[in-house]
Amino acid sequence: MTNNTHNSSNNFITVEGPIGVGKTTLAKKLAQSLSGELLLEGASENPFLEKFYQDPKSGALPAQLYFLFQRTQQLKQLIQTDMFITNRVADYLMEKDRLFARVTLDKDELNLYEQVYDNLTIDAPTPDLVIYLQAPVDVLLKRIRSRGLKMEFSITEEYLNKLCNAYTDFFHYYDASPLLIVNASGIDLVNNEQDYQQLLERIENTSSGRHYFNPTVI
């Protein structure tokens, strides 16, 4: 049975992690468990993303700018509503946009992106809790292949390695919100309710500091 109670201090939860780690799946389940509003980054809506996967050099900048505009607009709408009306769960952190840009863009493109970012950046709401899902690159590749999205067939091990390293570096210094780092390689959120309930309990009891959840050693 799903537990519908939660830590009242966690009104805004963000789930983050590299492609294929399961952040959208977890965000959807959390929003349902917590009777909250779900905020998704909408990668499938980005018309430049497939081109980026096929030809990163020419496709990176338009794909990145589209995500930047999309996420900024969504967060503006969030700010304009009452943050205390409901719980909210998002599958992205605004700072992630800049993280991806630094991985995918060349020097001149990054300079242009940074100028646009500085002019667009809003006072994005700070999450009450950030959940950072980690998994090895081979696990990510397997999950990406298994979901069978055509545009993701071109994702390479090299790109995922760069992305995972960028995430590791970013969250090593992250202290803007309480942080729960989860070893997602041993979790089956779709088929194993026990895995999910263990994680949900840890989430509900995390309100400050930096914590780790490794279900493989419980």
Describe the structure.
The protein has 218 residues and is an alpha/beta fold. It is 49% helix and 12% strand. The protein contains eight helices and six strands; from the N terminus they run E-H-E-H-H-E-H-H-E-H-H-E-H-E. Strands 2-3-1-4-5-6 form a six-stranded parallel β-sheet, with helices on one face. Strand 5, helix 8 and strand 6 form a beta-alpha-beta unit. The chain starts with 11 loop residues before the first strand and ends in a 5-residue tail after the last strand. The N terminus is likely disordered.
User: What is the CATH superfamily classification?
Assistant: P-loop containing nucleotide triphosphate hydrolases
- The strands making up the biggest β-sheet line up spatially as 2-3-1-4-5-6
Q: Based on DSSP secondary structure assignment, what is the total number of beta strands? A: 6
The Cα radius of gyration reads 17 Å
* Number of domain units: 1
* Residues in helix, %: 40-55%
Count of DSSP H/I helices: 8
Unreliable stretches covering 5 or more consecutive residues: 1-8
CATH class: Alpha Beta
- Distance from N terminus to C terminus (CA atoms, Å) equals 21 Å
Q: Tell the overall outline.
A: globular
Q: Please give the CATH architecture.
A: 3-Layer(aba) Sandwich
Could you say what the CATH topology is called? Rossmann fold
**Main β-sheet, in a few words?**
6 strands, parallel
Instruction: Indicate the proportion of strand residues.
Output: 5-15%
